[in-house]
């Protein structure tokens, strides 16, 4: 009875002293699990709680130390939800793991990542992202910065239109300045300055040739007697395959790069897809950019499924690809 009286009215029924039974009953369960599932803009991340709270006074630190789990937003599966850029968050999470900033080459979204770091209140990461980038090993860049992106890069380093490598410039005969050197030495405000080139343009200003393949997966239902009209389901996604610089030139902001965000411009990818679902719109964009269709292929499978009227319908699933070329 004395033990019962001593524990009456205290939180969790525990007292300040007593045996092992009293200490175990007074231990509060942790507010958050050791493994935390995050849904950031539709991208799911699984990490340890100690990782997200590794930077004191940051937004994530306050969320998972100063708030209750029921106070945080969750998705339909119970994961903690953050309405931010889910693909840039992986760099935020990498930084939280070891407090080191490591970005891939040809990273064009440095300013957007800095904005995400400001939102998550990571001042040291903001400072590192705002600092000028250190030049890598190799020869120093040319003095001029106006013109075509080096190797089609989307970074900040630009070369002048018509720029030639030093060993090529030294081969000019007679000691007279070559047209390339003369063009590169023009003032940016001069009337003879050439236009800026996109990564898909060559040095003479013409558009580069290449191939782009777009594909889609579709399905439709036909009754067993094949008398009724086919019920076609909408195209879920239009995929884009080809050189990165060409795909960005043709589709621009309508190109979803989320599945392959760090692909250099001169490399090839098969992981892009479009933000719209209309094939005709994709055809129009390719045609406006000088592409024409050169090939088309399609494969399909068939399966039977029972419908509500006890009859069996044929469900056809096909994948179709269109190959476009610009010469």
Automatic annotation (TrEMBL):
Region (Disordered): 1-28, 129-152, 167-204
Function: Auxiliary subunit of GABA-B receptors that determine the pharmacology and kinetics of the receptor response. Increases agonist potency and markedly alter the G-protein signaling of the receptors by accelerating onset and promoting desensitization.
Taxonomy, superkingdom: Eukaryota
Ranges of biased composition (kind: Low complexity): 184-195
BTB domain mapped to chain residues: 34-137
Keyword flag Protease: no
Organism: Prolemur simus
GO biological process: one example: protein homooligomerization
UniProt xrefs under Gene3D superfamilies: Potassium Channel Kv1.1, Chain A (3.30.710.10)
Pfam short name (any one): H1_KCTD8_12_16
Name of the encoding gene: KCTD12
Biased composition annotated in UniProt, kind: Gly residues: 11-21
Membrane-spanning segments: none
Sorted UniProt keywords: Cell membrane, Cell projection, Membrane, Phosphoprotein, Postsynaptic cell membrane, Synapse
GO MF annotation: an example: identical protein binding
Record's protein name: Potassium channel tetramerization domain containing 12
């Amino acid at each position: 009875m004395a033990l019962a009286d001593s524990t009456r009215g205290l939180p969790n029924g525990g007292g300040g002293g007593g045996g092992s039974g009293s200490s175990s009953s007074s231990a509060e369960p942790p507010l958050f699990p050791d493994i935390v599932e995050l849904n950031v803009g539709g991208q799911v991340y699984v990490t340890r709680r100690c990782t997200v709270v590794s930077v004191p006074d940051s937004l994530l630190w306050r969320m998972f130390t100063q708030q209750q789990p029921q106070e945080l937003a969750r998705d339909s599966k119970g994961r903690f939800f953050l309405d931010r850029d889910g693909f840039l968050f992986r760099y935020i999470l990498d930084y939280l793991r070891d407090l080191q900033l490591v970005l891939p080459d040809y990273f064009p979204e440095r300013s957007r990542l800095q904005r995400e770091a400001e939102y998550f209140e990571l001042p040291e990461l903001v400072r590192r992202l705002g600092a000028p980038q250190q030049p890598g090993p190799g020869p120093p860049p040319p003095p001029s910065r106006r013109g075509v992106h080096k190797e089609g890069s989307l970074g900040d380093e630009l070369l002048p239109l018509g720029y030639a490598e030093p060993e090529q410039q030294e081969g000019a005969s007679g000691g007279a300045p070559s047209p390339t050197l003369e063009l590169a030495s023009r003032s940016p405000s001069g009337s003879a300055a050439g236009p800026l080139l996109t990564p898909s343009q060559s040095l003479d200003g013409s558009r580069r040739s290449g191939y782009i393949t777009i594909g889609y997966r579709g399905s439709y239902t036909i009754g067993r007697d094949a008398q009724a009209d086919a019920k076609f389901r909408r195209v879920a996604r239009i995929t884009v395959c080809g050189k990165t610089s060409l795909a960005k030139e043709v589709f621009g902001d309508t190109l979803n790069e989320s599945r392959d965000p760090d692909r250099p411009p001169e490399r090839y990818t098969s992981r892009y897809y479009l933000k719209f679902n209309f094939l005709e719109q994709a055809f129009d964009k390719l045609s406006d950019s000088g592409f024409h269709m050169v090939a088309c292929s399609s494969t399909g499978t068939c399966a039977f499924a029972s419908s509500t009227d006890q009859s069996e319908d044929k469900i056809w699933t096909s994948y179709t690809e269109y190959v476009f070329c610009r010469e």
